Amino acid sequence: MSLDVPAALLERAETGDVDDAEFIDCVRQSLPYAWNVVSRVAADLHTGAEVFAADATAPPSETDRGQLLRALASDAIRGALQRHFGVVLAFQNCHRVAAFRPHAVGGPEHATFVSPRAQLLNQSPELRDC
């Protein structure tokens, strides 16, 4: 299971929709490493003038790497994080996370970051099995 879902939240989900605040709190508590990475790139973006901010720090453990992969591979989790932080997230390899200003999506910086060329250039032997 990718999230530690409290029983009360699971009961609400079984009977109807769950609001973003409850879902975000569950993500924050279940995936603290991923939460911290996304929080950091979003804060860097919001405090700077650039159209994106990125973090390329390799996760310190496989558990942390798994959290980042689960957070960014899940449409529901990724979407909730994007709405919560007011950013659009992009992801390369198993660790390079970027937050973009929504208006920058489709622009040159975003297109470069998400391009096949950028993915290929971001490869290295030590990241082969990440």
How would you describe this structure to a colleague?
- It is a single chain.
- The protein has one domain (7-127).
- Helix content is 55%, strand content 11%.
- It contains seven helices and three strands, in the order αααβααββαα.
- Strand 2 and strand 3 (96-100) form a beta hairpin.
- Helix 2 crosses helix 3, helix 2 crosses helix 5 (75-85) and helix 3 crosses helix 4 (62-73).
- The protein is globular.
- The two termini are 20 Å apart.
- The mean pLDDT is 89.
What attributes does this structure have?
7 helices; 3 strands; 3-stranded antiparallel beta sheet; mainly alpha; 130 residues
Layout of secondary structure:
Elements: H1 7-15, H2 20-30, H3 32-47, E1 52-55, H4 62-73, H5 75-85, E2 88-92, E3 96-100, H6 108-113, H7 116-121
Antiparallel strand pairs: 1-3, 2-3
